[in-house]
């Protein structure tokens, strides 16, 4: 990648630029998302606007964003086979459509938005700096790293996620260094902004038992199966909407009407939006098993019909409430089980056990690392061959494990 020592300052400047711009974009997004969420919670009748929001998003992407509608999958495809610069309009369109989805109560996340913001901004550097195809791949990697690190406040996990979600394809040691550099630039940029990341309280372990290692393995397998269910369900809804509703803008409208009926008949709103309060509660109070199942179905339906956002925070919700709900028969502390589920289901759905282990330790303490690591890796192994990103390629340890044992 680098022909001489002269290229290092250039790449450090690019890394800093990507990190700072992505951090500013994520901060702006998080501030607005917080306002939108608070406004929706104060005006719960806004869920009646789901069909209207659906037609606005649907028409917007159908007539102005056909080339960017793939979202994160477009970024992965461009990384594997670089063709042309990601259009800048991806950034404002995903920004506004995600906020609109959350305003009316769609069950969606935020990581997809941050990654698309980071990658779009990073790719614009190709207009000012001459880069080879391989160097452009590094640029996209930096955008993913910056977006993830800034939106969740986890720079180590962000850097590793970018590398791991691309399955180490043509990733050099120097680009690994740049991934971490960019992640920390993005992280510190957000830290200077009026953004507060959610704190999840894990009770310090008063004692530990050797059997917890085995239980962490069992729970990891359960998380992997739930991740598999999530991935298959979101793809199923997307496929069925595409098959039976040929006009794309109509899909989120019909989806919105269905979601309105759910909220009206159930009078249950904790599954709307990110669901952060329920996640926080799951660390202290046992959740019902149907909390994770209903969040899974509603998120897959929301995204499958065409609303925008991301899958990761809903996966946190699903995993944390799953861990909380099984605390009655798995003899481990409820907060530790919620923490393990929080990252383990995410690990299985994205095929990123290393990044998820790092994220778990960044969020919940390094002393819990062994249990988090076991849960993440076994979830990864038992979550099937297809994750939430259709364009992600299965390589390495998991591909060999699947072919040999499953």
State the share of residues found in helices, binned by percent: 55-70%
How many domain regions? 2
Distance between the termini: 38 Å
Taken as a percent bin, the fraction of beta residues is: under 5%
* Total strands: 0
Order of helices and strands: HHHHHHHHHHHHHHHHH
Main beta-sheet annotation: none
Structural class: mainly alpha
Instruction: Using the 3D structure, state the CATH architecture of the largest domain.
Output: Orthogonal Bundle
Q: Globular, elongated, flat, extended or rod-shaped: what is the shape?
A: globular
What is the name of the CATH class of the largest domain? Mainly Alpha
InterPro entries: Cl-channel_core, ClC, ClC-type_chloride_channel
Organism: Flavobacterium aciduliphilum
Membrane topology: Multi-pass membrane protein
Transmembrane segments: 12-35, 47-65, 138-163, 175-197, 209-230, 250-267, 328-349, 369-389
Per-chain topology:
Layout lengths: L6 H36 L7 H15 L7 H9 L9 H14 L7 H13 L9 H20 L2 H11 L7 H19 L19 H34 L5 H17 L9 H7 L6 H16 L7 H14 L8 H17 L2 H12 L4 H13 L14 H10 L1
Helix pairs in contact: 1-4, 1-5, 1-6, 1-8, 2-4, 2-10, 3-6, 4-5, 5-6, 6-7, 6-8, 7-8, 7-15, 9-12, 9-13, 9-14, 9-16, 11-13, 12-13, 13-14, 14-15, 14-16, 15-16
């Amino acid at each position: 990648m680098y022909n001489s020592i002269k290229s290092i300052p250039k790449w450090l400047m690019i890394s800093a630029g990507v990190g700072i711009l992505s951090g500013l974009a994520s901060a702006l997004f998080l501030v607005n998302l917080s306002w939108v969420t608070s406004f929706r919670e104060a005006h719960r009748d806004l869920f009646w606007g789901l069909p209207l929001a659906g037609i606005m998003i649907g028409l917007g992407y159908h007539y102005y964003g056909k080339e960017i509608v793939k979202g994160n999958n477009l970024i992965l495809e461009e990384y594997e086979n670089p063709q042309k610069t990601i259009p800048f309009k991806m950034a404002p369109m995903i920004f506004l459509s995600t906020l609109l989805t959350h305003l009316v109560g769609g069950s969606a996340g935020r990581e997809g938005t941050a990654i698309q913001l980071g990658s779009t901004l990073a790719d614009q550097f190709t207009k000012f700096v001459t880069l080879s195809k391989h160097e452009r791949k590094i640029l996209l990697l930096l955008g993913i790293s910056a977006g993830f690190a800034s939106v969740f406040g986890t720079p180590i996990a962000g850097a590793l996620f970018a590398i791991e979600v691309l399955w180490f394809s043509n990733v050099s040691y120097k680009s690994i260094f740049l991934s971490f550099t960019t992640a920390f630039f993005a992280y510190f940029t957000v830290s200077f902004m009026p953004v507060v990341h959610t704190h999840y309280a894990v009770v310090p372990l008063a004692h530990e038992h050797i059997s917890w290692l085995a239980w962490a393995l069992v729970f990891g397998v359960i998380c992997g199966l739930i991740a598999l269910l999530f991935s298959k369900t979101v793809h199923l809804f997307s496929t069925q909407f595409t098959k039976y509703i040929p006009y794309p803008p109509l899909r989120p409208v019909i989806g919105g009407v269905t979601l309105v009926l759910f909220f009206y008949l159930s009078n249950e709103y904790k599954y709307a939006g990110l669901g952060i309060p329920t996640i926080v509660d799951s660390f202290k109070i046992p959740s019902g098993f149907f909390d994770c199942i209903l969040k899974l179905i509603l998120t897959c339906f929301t995204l499958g019909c065409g609303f925008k956002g991301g899958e990761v925070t809903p996966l946190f919700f699903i995993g944390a409430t799953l861990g909380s709900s099984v605390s009655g028969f798995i003899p481990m502390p409820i907060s530790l089980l919620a923490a393990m589920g929080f990252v383990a289901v995410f690990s299985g759905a994205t095929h990123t056990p290393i990044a998820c282990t790092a994220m778990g330790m960044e969020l919940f303490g390094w002393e819990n690392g062994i249990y988090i690591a076991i849960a993440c890796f076994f979830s990864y192994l038992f979550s099937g061959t297809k994750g939430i990103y259709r364009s992600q390629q299965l390589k390495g340890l998991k591909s060999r494990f699947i072919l040999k044992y499953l």
